[in-house]
Design goal:
Elements (H helix, E strand, L loop, with lengths): L1 E8 L8 H9 L8 E7 L2 E7 L12 E2 L5 E9 L2 H10 L9 H12 L9 E9 L4 E6 L8 E4 L3 E5 L2 H4 L11 H10 L13 E2 L4 E6 L2 E6 L13 H18 L7 E4 L4 H13 L5 E7 L7 H11 L2 E7 L6 H9 L8 H12 L4 E3 L4 H5 L3 H13 L3 H14 L9 H10 L18 H7 L2 H7 L6 H8 L6 H28 L3 E3 L5 H9 L13 H7 L5 H5 L9 H6 L3 H7 L2 H4 L7 H13 L5 H17 L20
Parallel strand pairs: 13-14, 13-16, 14-15, 16-17
Antiparallel strand pairs: 1-3, 1-9, 2-3, 4-5, 5-6, 6-7, 7-11, 8-9, 8-10, 11-12
Helix pairs in contact: 2-3, 6-7, 6-19, 6-20, 7-8, 10-18, 13-14
Length: about 650
């Protein structure tokens, strides 16, 4: 695992300053504390930081082909590199190392840009073709590893993390208003946009070519969600177990110790079970728990650890995270408000004290239908048949009068969240219950300047467009496909990558292996959600391996009691971060609305945590990235508030 970056110039004779390359690499030291590497030539400069996992001595990057005419830097792991190496050696290629990075160089010699089709793993890589003076950037199919780029008048800058791109003082820092609107809507920024107008994200399943001073992107893979009918349930279960076992086996290839991030849910518990099935050695598991019992899954994690005889480590997350939150904000480079980032970082940090890589259960919910929102969507038709006047006078008025509960998934909280979902555009489908600012909220919160900068565009549009493109699927399959293409890629995988890399830990996701993904996408949706039972087929498979308590337990989610913390331990931090004085420093939000939301939340009459927490994350991000600071990791060339220019 690494952090990669580089600069390519329109002028073939121009080269990057050595100091810039070093600054770009240094900004991502946390991604690769073991080593660094550079390549400089007319027209190009490459830089990387390395976390050594495979071929500890010989895997120093950049790596090349036999004559040095193909230079490669890689972030990630290619799990089938040994198989590829054997085939390429059979075709006359000579390898100098046992590294998966070198396999890409030889694969490119053999197949050109089509080399990406042969890679099985998580990756983002940069390849410089010396003879053709041509740069190829590529990102894995699902988007497990990040890659960003910025095109300026004279060059292209790219990097795993935006902070590395910002090491160049010429990169504009203007805020993209649509990206900000989308962040406040969903707690993350979906698709190609980033918070900076000048910086773009390379999409999963895409590659970028820079040649002759021109940039173009192409799609090399798109998921096929077409269901395959005719197979018996038992046959699907057999195929699923076989593919998951192979996926886990491939991800155990490592020259450093491995473990499992064990939440106590069915996904991570299945990984422990399958790891025990294919691996006879010691298994280490790592879990984080909470003082609030409604959020804590440690008893279930202990049950699984005991069942499979793992060497188990755990920690308790306490509410005093006021020093930690600003630190984590800086690792994301842009506003990000998924509160599960906090426990993800802490369990990664704990695991890193014992191992360098770990398996994680990410992707299980999106593949197998694990979210309550899928059930909410099934009920939506019946609810919407109630006359609107009756809904407003009875159901919605009654729900609004209910006081929020302290428990994570209390009945009252579920009712209030469900009813609130119908304030969103119907075209959002199940994403109505994954959005956090209603149209009415935005009308009150956004200043006239902010609304004018949006020119009437809607922050809900990315989800609506995704849904339209999947109209041929049944409603449940469409909802899961939208989540796979948006929430998984741009929230879950971003969170896991940044927080694990902040701890210099590599996290591998067996559920997101391309063969597993392809198989599960072919399954009919009734095998995923049956009646009101989520993850039906995974639970059926789990009956072979896991205790009944794990299979039958409802989903809790890897989250924190942010609603309660904002009223207690994080109250002072919230009051300071969202004070009228702070909010008035820019022209984005109405400070009176923010103050009212804080007052209502603290009084207990409303739960505004899903509104206040994103606003806090934006203010902390703005302070870290748009205010002058004496910090080498964050450039100093920022305006006081940013702009919409």
């Amino acid at each position: 695992m690494c952090g990669i970056s580089g600069v390519a110039f329109r002028d073939p004779l121009e080269g990057p300053e050595e100091e810039l390359l070093k600054s770009m690499a240094e900004a991502m030291r946390h991604r690769g504390p073991d080593d660094e590497g550079f390549y400089k030539a007319p027209g190009i400069g490459l830089a990387m930081r390395r976390l050594s996992i495979i071929d500890l001595e010989g895997g120093r990057q950049p790596l090349t082909n036999e004559d040095g005419t193909v230079q490669v830097i890689l972030n990630g792991e290619i799990y089938n590199f040994q198989e590829l190496t054997q085939k390429l050696e059979g075709r006359g290629h000579r390898f100098q190392t046992r590294s998966d990075t070198e396999a890409i160089a030889h694969l490119y010699e053999e197949y050109g840009d089509r080399c990406v089709h042969y890679l099985r793993g998580m990756f983002a890589f940069a390849l410089w073709d010396v003879r053709r003076r041509r740069l190829l950037l590529a990102r894995d199919r699902v988007g497990k590893k990040p890659l960003h780029y910025c095109e300026l008048a004279d060059k292209l800058i790219f990097a795993s993390e935006i902070k590395s791109i910002l090491a160049d003082p010429r990169v504009p820092r203007d805020i993209d208003p649509d990206a900000l609107d989308q962040f406040l809507t969903f707690e993350y920024i979906p698709g190609e946009r980033t918070i900076f107008k000048a910086v773009r994200r390379l999409l999963p399943g895409h590659f970028l070519i820079w040649e002759g001073g021109r940039l173009r992107t192409e799609t090399y893979w798109e998921p096929d969600f077409t269901p395959e009918n005719g197979l018996a349930e038992g046959e699907w279960i057999e195929r699923l177990e076989a593919e998951l076992c192979e996926s886990v086996r491939l991800r155990l290839v490592s020259d450093v110790p491995l473990g499992v991030l064990l939440s106590g849910g069915i996904d991570s518990s299945m990984l422990v079970a399958l790891m025990r099935k294919v691996h006879r050695g010691k298994i280490r598991t790592f879990s984080v728990g909470f003082q609030d019992a409604s959020y804590d899954e440690l008893p279930y994690a202990r049950l699984v650890a005991g069942r499979f005889g793992t060497q188990h480590e755990e920690t308790i997350l306490k509410a005093d995270v006021t020093q930690l939150v600003p630190e984590l904000v800086r690792y994301f480079d842009e506003p990000f408000a998924d509160v599960s980032a906090i426990p993800t970082y802490l369990v990664s940090k704990m695991a890193r004290r014992h191992v360098t890589a770990a398996l994680g259960g990410d992707g299980g919910d999106e593949l197998f239908g694990g979210y309550d929102t899928y059930l909410a969507q099934k009920l939506a038709g019946a609810y919407e048949r109630i006359p609107g006047l009756l809904r407003g006078l009875l159901v919605e008025a009654w729900a609004n009068r209910l006081k929020p509960q302290a428990q994570k998934k209390g009945v009252v909280n579920r009712i209030k969240r469900y009813v609130e979902g119908f304030e969103y555009p119907r075209e959002l489908g199940h994403a109505r219950w994954m959005a956090y600012l209603t149209p009415g909220d935005k009308e009150k919160l956004y200043t006239s300047d902010f609304r004018a900068a949006l020119y009437g565009r809607s922050g809900y549009e990315p989800m609506v467009q995704r849904g339209r493109g999947l109209a041929a699927l049944d409603p449940l399959a469409r909802a899961m496909a939208v989540d796979f293409l948006t929430y998984l890629t741009d929230d879950i995988l971003v969170k896991v990558d940044r927080m694990s890399m902040a701890a210099s830990l590599e996290v591998r996701a067996p559920f997101l292996d391309q063969e597993v993904v392809g198989l599960v996408h072919r399954m009919p949706s009734h095998l995923k959600v049956r009646g009101f039972k989520t993850k039906y087929i995974l639970r059926q498979l789990a009956r072979r391996h896991l205790p009944r308590e794990i299979i039958q337990k409802p989903k809790q989610g890897f989250s924190i009691p942010v609603k309660n913390w904002l009223c207690q331990e994080l109250k002072a931090m919230m009051m300071e971060t969202l004070s009228k004085e702070r909010v008035q420093r820019h022209s984005f939000f109405n400070p009176e609305v923010v103050s009212r939301w804080m007052h209502e939340h603290l009084s207990g009459t409303h739960n505004h945590a899903h509104r206040l927490w994103p606003l806090m994350m934006f203010e902390l991000w703005r302070e870290a990235y748009l205010m002058p600071r004496n910090d080498k990791a964050v450039p100093k060339e920022y305006s006081a508030a940013g702009s919409f220019r």
